[in-house]
Task: structure prediction
Amino acid sequence: MASTRCELPGLPRRERCLVMGVVNVTPDSFSDGGRWFDHGRAVEHGLRLAEEGADIVDVGGESTRPGAPRVSLEEELRRVVPVVRELARQGVAVSVDTMRAQVADHTVQAGARLVNDVSGGLADPSMARLVAKTGVAYVLMHWRGHSHDMQRRAVYTDVVTEVHQELRTRMEAMADEGVDPAQLVLDPGLGFAKKPEQAHNWQLLAHLDRFDDLGRPLLIAGSRKRFLGRLLSDADGNDRPFSESDDATLALTVLSAAAGAWCVRVHDVRPSADAVRVQAAWRTGGALLDDQGRGEPVGRGGSGR
Ligand code: PMM
Result:
């Protein structure tokens, strides 16, 4: 896959898979809801993730867990804009996890360098024009509907072929609105209208190379998701709780990096930041190390800026 060392406007370029750390400024997110639901704590957490080696810090104000209600525009703005502004001011490469063009607009003005839209532009018809107008890098994720009914829409004959086709259709729709394909990152949307019991997520992961012909870098975001808990269920059939799936997430990071992913999105940053460095040193036979065998420094000033 050609995507790892891809150039995207405003974002760090590394000879390895990047790591995006998650800051959910929400009371109810899937795995860390409520923990950073305060501007000061959210900024502190984002800075810690950058210190731990996150190349990008992803700030979101709306939970996308299955069944989650939507928040108002005003509330989403209130949650994310100050956090994005402060992290950007401190030199962190910030992405904003939003489906709303107005939130994207305000946060890009506040310093966000990437718009991470889990709806791939479907939730807000103004998104494509905003992305075209600002020239900002944009994550286009595969999506079939809002959280309250997305699992009902997880009906596929061939999940890989259909996700590929739907991403291609969305890329074309964005281009029709003036978005330069060079702004785009693609994401198969693990867990979004994908059913653990039908192994949709695993089929996608097993065939990431099928997305090569779309010619854009891939973001893989499986951190703490339910399909990992299901994979690791106990003898009584109980899913492993998400709080105990960080080792499985780390395995996903290693395999995604080896498969050529541009970036992984994770909650627990340090293990993944270490792992992508190990993978890159392995892949290149140490060609990028200094004459003492050292890699790039981990953390802000090294990879965070
Ligand atoms: N998943 C979540 C949130 N944002 N963004 C992208 N690009 N891809 C994803 O799969 C994705 C996302 C939900 O996970 P969280 O509630 O743990 O943040």
In short: The radius of gyration is 18 Å.
